[in-house]
Design a protein that fits this description.
Pathway: Cofactor biosynthesis; coenzyme A biosynthesis; CoA from (R)-pantothenate: step 3/5; Cofactor biosynthesis; coenzyme A biosynthesis; CoA from (R)-pantothenate: step 2/5. It catalyses: N-[(R)-4-phosphopantothenoyl]-L-cysteine + H(+) = (R)-4'-phosphopantetheine + CO2; (R)-4'-phosphopantothenate + L-cysteine + CTP = N-[(R)-4-phosphopantothenoyl]-L-cysteine + CMP + diphosphate + H(+). CTP binds at residues 102, 112, 130-133, 149, 163, 167. Helices cover 26% and strands 28% of the residues. The protein is α/β, with parallel strands linked by helices. The strands form 4 sheets. An 8-stranded mixed sheet has the order 5-4-1-6-9-10-12-13, with helices on both faces. A hairpin with a 2-residue loop joins strand 2 and strand 3 (30-33). Helix 1 packs across helix 5 (207-222). Bound molecules: cytidine-5'-triphosphate (CTP) and calcium ion (CA). Cytidine-5'-triphosphate (CTP) is lined by residues 18, 78, 96, 98, 100, 102, 129, 131-133, 148-151, 163.
Length: 223
């Protein structure tokens, strides 16, 4: 059963990774979602696996298929993602790469909304979703290292630095996802790693290379 765990600096460690978007139902045939291909989270899970970690991969409905040799938990909503993440603890490291919908539709129903007969467009009301990263960061069984992401379009470093403090995580992987960067949905990423000692710009790399670099960094921190 342990045959797929390779030797490496993370052998014997448990890594928890969230990835992909969440879908929040409106009715049985409609949902709202964040944009996320799941590419970066998938690459991170594979890179941690390759360093010998046992990986639990909690993913929303993503375009990419999950890597082999890891434990995959497929979820749809933010609430389901939180439940799966909580159930997967304890872990040595948590990397929260998912694009979690900030709000769910409070007046979602289990019957299809119909156009016929109504003169006005439907109104949706929203409720805030639980913050999975913040919950893990203050959990009694908090992983030794908690890594969040911050996809921003403005004031990337300032927003990500504030986010790190607000959420109580150790590191934030920040990036500029403005249209024109090609990062959303693309194969490359250009990130800044924000830690307790400051901000470190990484070069523009493939998402696979970015993932390997992050996994190496995690291994160095945990060993
Ligand atoms: N995150 C989470 N649960 C949420 C929202 C966000 O776990 N309900 C995590 C994301 O996976 C990411 C980090 O928190 O690692 C930052 O997400 P982001 O959407 O940038 O932060 P928010 O606090 O939602 O702030 P914003 O208003 O910028 O969306
Ligand atoms: Ca958000």
């Amino acid at each position: 059963i342990d045959a797929h765990f390779s030797d490496g600096p993370l052998k014997g460690r448990h890594a928890l990774v969230t990835s992909g978007p969440t879908h929040e139902p409106i009715d049985p045939v409609r949902y709202i979602a964040n944009r996320s291909s799941g590419t970066q989270g998938t690459a991170i899970a594979a890179a941690l696996r390759d360093l010998g970690a046992r990986v639990t991969f909690v993913t929303g409905p993503a375009d990419t298929s999950p890597p082999a040799g890891i434990d995959v938990v497929q979820v749809e909503t933010a609430q389901q993602m939180l439940n799966a993440v909580t159930a997967a603890l304890p872990a040595d490291v948590a990397v929260m790469a998912a694009a979690v919908a900030d709000w769910r539709v409070e007046n979602a129903g289990d019957r299809k909304m119909k156009k016929d007969g109504s003169a006005t467009a439907p109104a949706l009301t929203f409720a805030e979703n639980p913050d999975i990263l913040a919950t893990v960061s203050k959990a009694a069984t908090r992983p030794k290292l908690v890594v969040g992401f911050a996809a921003e379009t403005d004031d990337v470093i300032a927003n990500a630095t504030a986010k790190r403090l607000r959420k109580g995580c150790d590191w934030i992987v920040a990036n500029d996802v403005s249209p024109g960067t090609g990062i959303m949905g693309g194969t490359e990423n250009a990130v800044t790693l924000i830690t307790d000692t400051g901000a470190e710009d990484w070069p523009r790399l493939t998402k696979t290379e970015t993932a390997r670099r992050l996994a190496d960094r995690i291994a160095r921190h945990l060993t």
